[in-house]
Amino acid sequence: MLYFVARRLVSALSVVLVTLIATFALFFIAPTDPAAAICGDRNCTQERYNEIKKNLNLDQPKVQQFAEYTAGIFAGRTFETSGVIQDCNAPCLGYSFKNDRPVTQMIKDRLPVTVSLVAGYAVLVLTIGVFVGSMAAKRRGTLGDRALMSSTLILSSVPYYIVALMISLYFTILYPILPRGGYTPLTDNAGKWFAGLLTPWLVLGIYNCTAYARYSRGSMVETLSEDYIRTARAKGLSDRKVTYKHALRSGMIPVITIFGLDVAGSLAGAIFTERIFDLPGLGNLVLQSLETYDLPVIMGTVLVASVVLVAMNFIVDVAYSLIDPRVRLS
Amino acid sequence: MSIGSPDSTVGIEDHPASAEPERAKGVAHGKSPTRIAMDRLRKDKVAIVCATIVVLFILVAVFAPLLVKLEGADIGTFNPDLVDAYGFPVNGPTPAHWFGVEPKTGRDNFARWVYGARPSLIIAFIATVSGTVIGVVMGLLAGFLGGWVDRIISWVIDFVLSLPYLLFAIAMVPIVEQLRGGSFNLTPAEQAQIRFFVLIFVLSFFGWAGLARIIRGEVLSLREREFVLAAKAIGVPTRQVLFKELLPNLVAPIVISASLALPAYVTAEAGLSFLGVGLIEPVPSWGQTIATATNWFKADPIYLWLPVLGITILVLALALLGDAVRDAFDPKTRR
């Protein structure tokens, strides 16, 4: 077990290290003039350009720049802009010369939005998906089961952003049946927070629960045909107890695995939802930064998202190996 | 001629151990798995309908200039006389403009829609082909050679699969533009062209890994089979074992993966263009039109619904077709 965890940890850390190098290479080695890229084309003065160049030590060797960047993540560093020295505390992911703020701060500001969105989505998708899936598995082969499964296939084949956009335009703006998307901090006004996130949650949850319904149906169908379920039935346990206490427990293992990766992926990939429902989360931050060519922000977000994904991958793998010992052998 | 040189296997090539037996005409014979799958597909009504729709879209894309000529408009002409002072189109569909004109610019909607089918299909097809080729080659090499080659390729697969691809796609755009002289110094046409290649690159870069992992697993079990051992024993060169012996046995996973990749790439291309990361003016693209049309959807619904229906129907048809293909090729559903 320990050997398995250690091996997975080394592999996860190697992925993080290479991602760090890759993002650094993408933003500091690939562009012919990184300072110009960071400064942007519009409104870039010569002074600003020189300042960026000096701040990031761009005339030093690339290896030294990389070392400084990495050191900044662990120990923090300082930047000098317009004559003022700005602290960039650890984990320092760079400095946005466009907004005159450390990237870490900007990401921290946006994080509650994305986390709120993903948390509500996670609750919704898991409950609806698993419930629908296990209902379908119990009634396998009936008309209801088949109708449900083919409708989930059709819904999940329509691109997500089309569904979200149409619901947003027609049901929150033209015919306001659902509350319009928006973000109010939970600590400011819990009711407004909930109302603004309700539609995005519903859209994201209902669209994605189709996949969960399929997974849990497949897994439950398999579990329900196992011997121990027959034993439980033979003992005279109630149908409800057999399904929800005996079968659901082991049937949910593969679903939870997918769930873990999906939540991590949503943290990095809720871009469409955030754009369509006007939520100022991480995804919107990246899109806004693209419009203004604020490269350090894009770089920082990519790095954070990659690390979250790798960490989640690792946690899911270890958790899975705890539940199912066969995994450790491979 | 020494044993093991390519020439010594000329005869073997014609009778590979894995292939179906030679058929005599009129004699009952076994069918190859691909044949069985194709037969089942032909009987599947949903598959036929979806395939027809996909072919229609391809025809629209191929004959876009002809269709537009038939209508009598073109994609680039601005018609400021057809929109009012606020940019709203003056009249709806007319014989000269079948689906009306764009708000603000007054360009022809039908022409933009017809030409919009092109980038979607071209990018999706190129990305699918290149992603599939890379995935198959990598999977074959990793599975067959084993050892450190396998370890490196498997690590790269894990690495690619653990990256957030949407974010990387967004990050690639400014970098590539900067490499070509900065977005400020590029003409819109040049910028649009760069975006086109960035899209293909990003989609194939993130698309090959999943297939490579599947192929690797299949090859791991296939390489221990007798026909591969036999081929190796008589000195068939590695390249030939890989592509002449193993590859024909991998048709099913390859076809399935490609049929699932196509709708995913059409979706991704339009989605990235919708976000402003993909194709940009002057190249007409559905995703980009949807993004603009959301500002006009109350006054000019047709402008929004054209690309929305285009993408939805195309992706739905491709996805259901892919599902039918998967069913047809899956030995577990064999009747």
UniProtKB/TrEMBL annotation, chain A:
Its main location: membrane. GO terms for biological process: transmembrane transport. Signal peptide: none annotated. PROSITE patterns: ABC_TM1. SUPFAM superfamilies: MetI-like. One of its GO terms (cellular component) is plasma membrane. This is ABC transporter permease. It comes from Kribbella antibiotica.
TrEMBL record, chain B:
PROSITE patterns: ABC_TM1. One of its GO terms (biological process) is transmembrane transport. It is a multi-pass membrane protein. The chain crosses the membrane at residues 46-68, 121-145, 152-176, 196-215, 246-266, 302-325. Its main location: membrane. Residues 117-326 form the ABC transmembrane type-1 domain. Residues 1-29 are annotated as: Disordered. It comes from the Bacteria. GO terms for cellular component: plasma membrane. Belongs to the binding-protein-dependent transport system permease family. This is ABC transporter permease. It comes from Kribbella antibiotica.
